[in-house]
Amino acid sequence: QVQLVESGGGLVQPGGSLRLSCAASGRRFSSYAMGWFRQAPGKDREFVAGISSSGGSTYYADSVKGRFTISRDNAKNTVYLQMNTLKPEDTAVYYCAARNGLRVVTSIREFEYWGQGTQVTVSS
Predict the structure, then answer these.
(1) Phi, psi (rounded to 5 degrees) for 82
(2) What span, in angstroms and rounded, lies between the C-alpha atoms of 123 and 71?
(3) Per-residue model confidence as pLDDT tens digits over 47-96
(4) Are 37 and 97 within 8 A, CB to CB?
(5) End-to-end distance of the chain based on CA atoms, in angstroms?
């Protein structure tokens, strides 16, 4: 069983930066591929970024490619999402998710464990 806790959300101005963290419980973190998803008001939850269990492979949604960076520190059981050049359309609740597998996947159905989310608001 895995528990995930997101942190680092908040209010930022357009063009600003924010770094999200996701702390995982358990000792098998290095065997899980991880992902970040987000859900904006009135919209479905969507894939943002994913990273393989070793951190060797990453994948990004087209909407955030070049602006966001996902990384992980398996020694600390933590995955990060560095968000730069934030736009109002990035406003959403951001969720961390874990999958018992090695490869990056983008489907919500492939992730078994989820955090409770952290709010990111981009506004003037």
Answers:
(1) -90, 120
(2) 26
(3) 999 999 999 999 999 999 999 999 999 999 999 999 999 999 999 999 99
(4) yes
(5) 40
